[in-house]
Every structure is written in structure tokens, then in C-alpha cells.
Design goal:
single chain, 2-enoyl-CoA Hydratase, Chain A, domain 1, 2 domains, 11 helices, 10 strands, 36% helix
Length: 309
């Protein structure tokens, strides 16, 4: 698809996605959501892409939702540009319907499912969905000019984009609540102290620092191993017992243990040379269901019943 709200630039194994509505401080729209999801779909399907960087054009990363519709902005059934949420059998809105899904959550779930490492390069203001879309990214690097704000309480709404799952896991529940209760905007130094970002760099060094990290993640590693590591680490955060991780680890080790990448990795180590991994993410991911399956949005639908390997 042709993109109107983002830029898509791939070079040397790194895909850079740039939110590109600088005159609107890269405010988030339904079109931007659709284009970002499509870009992550393309990245996963393209074996030449090893890592993804997300940044913003101009002086903001993303100033949050586009508020041009005023008080109707978050009223789904008052928006003629959004599919209405239909009534259920009891006459109340059917909140299990796909039309009820939060757009920011659709995006963060897609980032969560990425098979490539994702690095947020926050160049300026990141508030509302501008900050919650960062949470499922693996690393967040901030410019000295970056600012952050979970401003939902000041708009009369609640944190969205699955942030009640991601944010406490990243920074701890007390810090997550403090930022979300107040809704205040805070500087990059506080974001780093609270664990939201891992590094602060001068603005002119932001993208080069993100690219260097992407290369560190991918230059000497198996693409399939990295894809599996990403999914295993994220998904096991919700495990009820370490046995769930043991099951997943065991199955992943079984499949990767007989792969060509393992033979190459060990041979390269013994021969003291760089490994030349050939397995591809597009064709080499093992069938590790149900651990890497997604549950449905609707409560009334059965969860995945695909058999285990």
C-alpha cells in the first residue's frame, strides 16, 4: 500500500519508519494506524529486514491522538469515519464486536507480535498514544528534547493501547500509576530514571545511536533465533508458573537444535570465524502453538485449539 502518514526507508538490514505528519506534530490517526500495521507486516515478511526503528518527523515523535474532531474524538459511535459498534441481543453496545477495538491496541499488539527487534527513537514529544505505542518496543532511546506524558486522566479517558499490560511490566506498578494518575508531561531524564527509556542522546545523534543498537542486535546473530527470543521473552511475562516457560524453551530448543543455523553457529565458533546464518524468519519459524498464538478479542469466542507440536 502507498503510505501517506509515514515514511518507510530500508537500508543495510534496518527499516526506519518515520511518523510523518510534522505539521500536526505527527498526531495519530486511523490512517497512521493502518499504515504502521501494514509496515510491520511487510517487515516480518521481508528477510532482508533484520530490525525496525520507529521515529518521528519534525519536532515531535507523536503528540497523541488527532483531536480535530473535538469532543467526538473518542466517541466511537459519534464518528462517521469509524464503523459503529452494533447493539447486542440485549440492546446494549456489543463490546465484543471487532468495531469496539481500540485502534492504539491494534497497533501495539502488532508491534508485540513483531519477529524483528523494534527500537523506538524518540525525537520529541511523545504523549498519549505517542508514548503507549512505544511500550511493546524492545528498547527506547530518547533525544535530550524528548518529553513524555500519559495524559489520559487529563482528557477524561484511560490509558489505552494495552498499556495496562505493558507499562507496569516495564516500570513497575507504582511508577506507572504515578505517571497515569497525574497525566503530567515529564522530561527524558525522568523517563530514564523511571525505566521507560534506556538512553538519552543529543538530538543529532539519535538515529545513529538507534542504528548502532540495531546492528549490535543483528550483525552476529541468527535471524530466527532473535525472532524466537523476542516472542518468548515477551509472552512468558504472563506465565503463571515457570513450567510454562520450560515447555516453551524445550520445544524451541528441540526445533532449533536440529537447524542448519545451529550447525553453522557451532562450526563458526570452533573455526574462530563469523557465522553465516542462512535460516530465514519467513520460512524457519517452528510451530510453537499454542504459546505463540493470540487469544481472540471477543470473550465469547473459543481460544485457539491448534495442537501442540
Amino acid at each position: 500500500m502507498a503510505y501517506e502518514t509515514i515514511l518507510h526507508e530500508a537500508a543495510d538490514g534496518i527499516l526506519t519508519l518515520t511518523l510523518n505528519r510534522p505539521d500536526k506534530l505527527n498526531a495519530f490517526t486511523a490512517a497512521m494506524m493502518t499504515e504502521l500495521i501494514d509496515a510491520f507486516d511487510r517487515a516480518d515478511a521481508d528477510d532482508a529486514v533484520r530490525a525496525v526503528i520507529v521515529t518521528g518527523a519534525g519536532r515531535a515523535f507523536c503528540a497523541g491522538a488527532d483531536l480535530s474532531r473535538g469532543g467526538q474524538t473518542f466517541d466511537r459511535n459519534a464518528r462517521p469515519d469509524r464503523p459503529p459498534v452494533p447493539a447486542g441481543p440485549d440492546g446494549a453496545p456489543d463490546l465484543d464486536h471487532e468495531a469496539a477495538r481500540d485502534g492504539g491496541g491494534r497497533l501495539t499488539l502488532r508491534i508485540f507480535n513483531s519477529r524483528k527487534p523494534v527500537i523506538g527513537a524518540i525525537n520529541g514529544a511523545a504523549v498519549g498514544i505517542g508514548v503507549t505505542m512505544l511500550l511493546p518496543m524492545d528498547v527506547r532511546i530518547a533525544s535530550e528534547e524528548a518529553r513524555f506524558g500519559f495524559v489520559f486522566s487529563q482528557r477524561g479517558i484511560v490509558p489505552e493501547a494495552c498499556s495496562s499490560f505493558f507499562l507496569p511490566r516495564l516500570v513497575g506498578t507504582p511508577q506507572a500509576l504515578a505517571w497515569c494518575y497525574s497525566g503530567r508531561v515529564f522530561p527524558a531524564a525522568e523517563a530514564m530514571a523511571g525505566g521507560l527509556v534506556s538512553k538519552i542522546v543529543p538530538a543529532q545523534e539519535l538515529l545513529s545511536a538507534a542504528a548502532a543498537l540495531a546492528r549490535e542486535f543483528t550483525d552476529k546473530s541468527s535471524a530466527v533465533s532473535v525472532a524466537l527470543i523476542r516472542q518468548m521473552m515477551w509472552r512468558m511475562q504472563g506465565a503463571a508458573h515457570p513450567m510454562e516457560a520450560h515447555r516453551l524453551d524445550s520445544r524451541a530448543m528441540f526445533h532449533r537444535g536440529r537447524s542448519e543455523d545451529v550447525k553453522e553457529g557451532i562450526t563458526a565458533f570452533l573455526e574462530k570465524r563469523p557465522a553465516r546464518f542462512a535460516d530465514k524468519v519467513s520460512t524457519g519459524m517452528p510451530p510453537l502453538s499454542p504459546w505463540l498464538d493470540d487469544p481472540p478479542f471477543a470473550h465469547s469466542r473459543a481460544t485457539s485449539t491448534r495442537s501442540r507440536p
